[in-house]
């Protein structure tokens, strides 16, 4: 018995092959999650009826500020400083990994949905909620919390944070395209909408889908839903016809939704970072325009606390009324599929890519970010797209439960990843 106890103590305390003991690895993995949980709890407290500093309108404004200003500033400053043309070629697997994560996640979602058989019309909804993970906000938060600790396994705090943020930002533009093409089409409402009373057959109610009915229903879940843009061709000149056709293509491909502030910041940062003259002009410490980059860095640092306060505040209302529509069984299947079935598949993909020589040799942060892309809870932006398509309440319910359980699942997966990498 004494021998077993000594062996257990040695395993827990003494350094393993990567130079870290099991207890140290657990500490490194759990502390970032604890920091995230603490800040979310403070947001929940600020939004509660007892304090009420972050009411619904306040959280909406805070989310808009993060999405339109703080997150683009963080992406621009971190990605622009880290990237070069050579590194962009070297990092090619990051966007590919995002695509693979969406494909494998959707296949797992299809299998789960086929087994669980969610209520009509939430079959495709279930696939999307399992298949599309958060590749931006939550990984950025975790990297910031992990790198802030001087004992982190990735070395220098500043380099850890800059590399991690750059890798995550480099894949965001692909995620946005997937969201506003694949997810947007998958969540297309049935003929009777998501509020149909018949559980077996879609309701056909042309009056409900008319423009007048949509105009009278001013709720954000229904307003932009079912009114499809149709091409209007004028009888004037060919130039006008071409202009109308291009406008129709622009609206049909949802380019307005794809071209958003974080994506614009990513593209601009990649362009400037890959042109040596422009990079020296803006991103080097002694550059004449470095004051702009430094200002973006200051604003970008505010993104993490703001988004966590808003996320915690959004949990104050609980899962909401959407839970009753999709049912406890479907919700549990989505949580289990997203947090327990998708990450092992991602681990296999990343390990295979490493063995095939697709990844930069020796860059452990690169591999860690790739693994995080398969491990995150359901994308918050997928919930925003669901809101546009009329199933926002159901998506909010799923996001609530997935993020609650993700606090525990992410800690477990990060412990496993750190043991594999180190």
UniProtKB/TrEMBL annotation:
* UniProt-annotated stretches for the region Disordered: 198-219
User: Where would you find this protein in the cell?
Assistant: Membrane
The record's principal subcellular location, in a coarse class, is membrane
Lineage, top-rank taxon, reads: Eukaryota
Keywords per UniProt: Auxin signaling pathway, Membrane, Transmembrane, Transmembrane helix
Extract the InterPro entries matched here.
Mem_transp_PIN-like, PILS2/6
- GO annotation terms (biological process): auxin-activated signaling pathway; endoplasmic reticulum to cytosol auxin transport
Q: According to its record, what are the GO cellular component terms?
A: membrane
Q: Which residues cross the membrane?
A: 28-48, 60-79, 91-113, 125-146, 166-184, 258-278, 290-311, 332-353, 365-386, 398-420
Q: How does it sit in the membrane?
A: Multi-pass membrane protein
Record's protein name: Auxin efflux carrier family
């Amino acid at each position: 018995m004494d021998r077993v106890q000594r062996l257990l103590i040695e395993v827990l305390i003494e350094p393993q092959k990567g130079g870290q003991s099991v207890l140290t690895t657990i500490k490194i993995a759990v502390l970032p999650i604890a920091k995230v949980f603490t800040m979310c709890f403070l947001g929940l407290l600020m939004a509660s009826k007892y304090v009420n500093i972050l009411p619904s309108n306040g959280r909406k404004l805070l989310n808009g500020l993060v999405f339109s200003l703080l997150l683009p500033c963080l992406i621009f400053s971190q990605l622009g400083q880290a990237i070069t043309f050579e590194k962009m070629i070297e990092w090619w697997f990051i966007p590919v990994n995002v695509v693979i994560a969406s494909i494998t996640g959707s296949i797992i979602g299809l299998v789960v949905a086929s087994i669980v058989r969610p209520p009509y019309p939430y079959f495709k909804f279930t696939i999307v909620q399992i298949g599309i993970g958060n590749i931006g906000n939550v990984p950025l938060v975790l990297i910031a919390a992990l790198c802030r600790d001087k004992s982190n396994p990735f070395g220098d705090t500043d380099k850890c944070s800059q590399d991690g943020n750059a890798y995550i930002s480099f894949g965001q533009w692909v995620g946005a395209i997937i969201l506003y093409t694949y997810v947007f089409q998958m969540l297309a409402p049935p003929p009777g909408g998501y509020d149909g009373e018949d559980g077996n057959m879609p309701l056909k109610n042309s009056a409900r889908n008319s423009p007048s009915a949509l105009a009278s229903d001013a709720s954000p879940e229904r307003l932009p839903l079912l009114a499809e843009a149709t091409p209007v061709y004028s009888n004037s000149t060919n130039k006008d016809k071409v202009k109308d056709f291009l406008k129709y293509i622009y609206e049909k491909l949802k380019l307005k939704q794809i071209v958003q502030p974080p994506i614009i910041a990513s593209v601009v940062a990649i362009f400037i970072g890959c042109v040596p003259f422009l990079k020296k002009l803006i991103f080097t410490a002694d550059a004449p325009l470095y004051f702009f980059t430094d200002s973006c860095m200051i604003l970008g640092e505010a993104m993490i606390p703001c988004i966590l306060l808003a996320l915690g505040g959004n949990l104050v209302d609980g899962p909401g009324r959407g839970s009753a529509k999709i049912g406890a069984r479907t919700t549990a299947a989505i949580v289990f599929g997203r947090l327990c079935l998708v990450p092992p598949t991602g681990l296999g993909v990343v390990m295979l890519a490493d063995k095939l020589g697709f990844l930069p040799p020796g860059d452990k942060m690169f591999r860690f970010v790739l693994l995080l892309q398969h491990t995150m809870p359901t994308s918050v932006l997928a919930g925003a797209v669901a809101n546009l398509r009329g199933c926002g309440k159901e998506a909010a319910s799923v996001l609530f439960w997935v993020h609650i359980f993700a606090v525990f699942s992410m800690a477990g997966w990060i412990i496993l990843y750190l043991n594999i990498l180190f």
